[in-house]
Each structure stands twice: as C-alpha cells, then as structure tokens.
Design goal:
This protein is of the alpha/beta class. It contains 16 helices and 11 strands. Helix 3 links the parallel strand 2 and strand 3. Bound molecules: glutamine. The site of glutamine has 13 residues, from loops.
Length: about 450
C-alpha cells in the first residue's frame, strides 16, 4: 500500500509506469503476507517488482510502448514473469519504454515520456527508462529491463541504479516481445549489486520454450558475493581489468564522465585489481554495424503486427493492402517506422550483401576482438555512456547523434557478453554517472564482484 501511494504521488509527474496493477499487486501482497506468516521461505516472497512493458503478463495489458498494442492483454506469462511469481514476487506494474525498445531516452514511447528523477528536465535514458526511473524514485524494489544495445545499462547509469545485462542465452526470452532476436536479453535493474545477484539466481536457467536459451548451470551469484564480503580487502587481488584505448579516445566523452570513471578505476586498483590497456579495434564500426543488424531483425520481427492477428486495426481501410498500410502508419511511431524501412532496405535483394552481410562480418570481428582481449584480462571496464543524462528534447530530431550515444554498450550485445552498470559518481550538475564492467560469456561472477567492490 505504501508503495502504491508513492507511485500515485510521484508518477503523474515522472511517468515511469504505463500500467500499475494496483488490484493484482494488493492481492498477491496479501497472499505473500499469509505465506510469510505461515513460515514459508521463498527468495522474493512479497517483494514488489516492476516489469518493462515488453514482457508478457497474463491478464495485464502489455503494450511494448506502442499504440499498436495499446489494448493487448496476453493470455500467458513470459517465463521470467512466471519464475518471479513462483519465487513469491509481487508484480506491481508495467514500466514505460521506447516503443518496442527502440531508443536511448524513453522519448519514443507511444504514450508519454518518462522524466529522470534526479532532474526532471532530463531523460532517464532508454529504452528501459521506466524501469530505471521507477527504481531510482523508490517506486519498486527491483525491476526487469531488456538490453539489445545498452537498454538496461544506459538507463541504470543515467538514473544512479545498478543494471545488469546477462550473457546472451542466460535468461529465457519466452514471452519477451522480440526486437532484435540475436541481441535481446532480459536482466535486473536494482538498488545495488547484491540485489542484482539475488535476481540473477532466480531468473537465470535453461528454458526449453526458448531455443536460444543456453543449457548451462546457473552459479550461485549471491554466495559468490557473500564469500567476497567476508574478505573484502583482498578478494579482488589477482583480477586483471582491461581498458579499451579506443573507448577512452571517443569524441565527445564528457570530462565529468571521464573523471568519475578514473576515480572508480582507482578504487578498484586500491583493492588489488591490475589495470592493463587493451584494444578493441572495431569500435569505430560498432555503431554502424549495430544500426544495420538491429533494424534488419526488427523489420522481420515486427511484420507480425499487421492489424490481423494482434492489437490495433485501422477500420477505415478500403481493402487488405490499404488496411496494412493504414494500420502500420497509424499504429507505429516515427522511430519504429524508420527502423522498419532501414531494416527492410538492408535485407532486400541486391543490397543484402553490401549492408546486412557486411554488418555481420563486422560483428564477427567484434567478437574476435573481445576473445583476444579476454586472453589478457578477466574484465573490461569503461564508461557506460559518453555523457550524463541529456535534456528532454535535446536529441529527438537527430537520430544519428542519439545512435552514437550507444557506442560503449552495444559491442557487448554484438558479442553476446554480460555487462554491468554500477553508479560511480555525479556530474557537476548532480546527475548520476555509471561505470561499466564487461566479462566473457557466462562469466558474470567477476563482474559482480568488481561491481560490489565499487559500492
Ligand atoms: N538504443 C539502442 C537502440 O535504439 C538500444 C536499445 C535497446 O537496447 N533495446 O536500438
């Protein structure tokens, strides 16, 4: 009740939620109370969790931030949602996002913008901006986001909370509405690294209903951190961190971001982490390759929203083709239409090899860069975004500038690696700044330990 009251007080201004399921949350909270009183022990019993509105929830509308799905109510829960419920969590509501997760500021939502709780004139980042803002404003206890090219880590960074993108395949995506299937991953947005580890223990694991879900054991992330806690002074000793030289010389890197990064780097050094310089030579091409691959996959995934099977249909059409056209041009926002057009073009006969084919070759080279780097170090560290949160409206008319802000985050997705964002300081204007830690595939533990070392 307290949390719902807080949402009612704050959220008309912040706009972090699209749907608050007050009745459902109260019902499951009452049930959790009874189970707690009966002595039941479950990892998340009674914990209020917010979900990015791209995850299907049975009986609760799932909009993907799009007018085309404004009234779509799924008949099933995504696997992660079911797992959370089975662990006793109370699902409090569905958070705002850039339409179909396409964006870096949550300004592309089909419903409303979300404001950054630290400064209401600034964006919260995106696309999981609603989840990060809800977390930062204390309107949930933990949240889930999705990360295709930084959408968990960048909003976490801009809102001063922790965000973790797990290894590709670690978390089932059954019931997640697809954006770019070879890149999408679900992960936690939390107050601190310990909560992220706790959520990871719950949400990771093989799911036969997602053919890309990896059949690997889930380590006990929580106890990895707890054992570390007993011996905090020495347990990062021997860890090697690589700093990509191409990242640090990126044009437009804000001096406050650089200073906060360097301070945090020293904190890790003081705990025994050895720093080395590494090279990720494809960095310059990562944004271009990502913005071919992601829209290409999106153009294929979004073909299903045709006005026949799901959601909105324009009823003033004269025939079938006219109905497709009107439904898609009214139902999808400008950014989504831009991506569908770019993606369809990149995949079309005659252009496929020049665009999509070439982008996938860059992607393989990015993967190789990382495999080489991880022969020399255990983790790679960098800023999360080149600047702190920017002003609302500042980049809306300039998609290219917006895309370039993803430079530090999207290579991780291209290589399928895990990445963590932890708060590491503030800008001179008082906006939070995040620190990024990346690791090799299925190697989240050193990344969580180093993140914990920074807290
Ligand atoms: N900003 C990136 C994009 O617009 C990443 C989004 C995401 O990770 N979902 O595609």
């Amino acid at each position: 009740d307290e949390l719902l009251g807080r949402i009612e007080r704050l959220d008309s201004d912040l706009g972090a939620y699209i749907t608050v399921d007050a009745e459902g949350a109260k019902r499951s909270a009452r049930e959790a109370d009874k189970r707690i009183a009966a002595g039941e022990r479950l990892p998340l019993l009674g914990i209020p969790i917010a979900l990015k509105d791209l995850l299907c929830t049975r009986g609760v509308r799932t909009t993907c931030g799009s007018k085309i799905l404004e009234n779509f109510v799924p008949e099933y829960d995504a696997t992660v949602v079911k797992i959370l419920k089975d662990a006793g969590a109370v699902i409090i509501g569905k958070t705002n996002l850039d339409e179909f997760a396409m964006g870096s500021s949550t300004e592309n939502s089909g419903f409303h913008i979300t404001r950054n709780p630290w400064n209401r004139d600034c964006v919260p980042g995106g696309s999981s901006g609603g989840s990060a803002a809800a977390m930062a404003a204390g309107m949930c206890t933990a949240a889930l986001g999705t990360d295709t090219g930084g959408s968990i880590r960048q909003p976490a960074s801009h809102c001063g909370v922790v965000g973790l993108k797990p290894t590709y395949g670690r978390v089932s995506r059954f019931g997640l509405v697809s954006y770019a299937s070879s890149l999408d991953q679900i992960g936690p947005i939390t107050r601190d690294v310990t909560d992220a580890a706790l959520l990871m223990n719950v949400i990771c694991g093989h799911d036969p209903r997602d053919s890309t879900s990896a059949d690997v054991d889930t380590p006990d992330f929580m106890s990895a951190i707890q054992s570390f806690d007993q011996d905090k002074s020495s347990s990062l000793k021997g860890m090697k961190a690589g700093i990509p030289k191409e990242f640090m010389s990126v044009k437009g890197l804000d001096p406050d971001v650089e200073a906060a990064f360097n301070n945090a780097r020293k904190v890790l050094e003081d705990q025994g982490v050895e720093m080395i310089e590494i090279s990720l030579p494809q960095t310059d091409y990562a944004v271009a390759a990502y913005y071919v691959i992601a829209p290409s996959e999106a153009s294929s995934n979004l073909a299903r929203f045709d006005g026949v099977r799901y959601g909105f249909r324009d009823r003033n059409a004269s025939d079938l083709i006219d109905m497709y056209k009107k439904t898609k041009s009214r139902g999808f926002g400008a950014e989504v239409q831009r991506r569908i057009i770019t993606g369809t073009y990149a995949l079309s006969a005659g252009y496929y090899d020049a665009y999509y084919g070439r982008a996938t070759r860059v992607r393989s080279m990015i993967r190789e860069d990382f495999s080489k780097a991880f022969k020399e170090c255990d983790i790679i560290i960098s800023p999360v975004a080149p600047t702190p949160a920017f002003r609302i409206g500042e980049n809306v008319d300039d998609p290219l500038t917006m895309y370039l802000t993803d430079i530090f985050t999207l290579s991780t997705n291209m290589a399928g690696l895990p990445g963590l964002s932890v708060p590491c300081g503030f800008s001179s204007e008082g906006l939070p700044i995040g620190f990024q830690i990346m690791a090799d595939r299925f190697n989240e533990i050193p990344l969580l330990k180093a993140g914990y070392g920074l807290e």
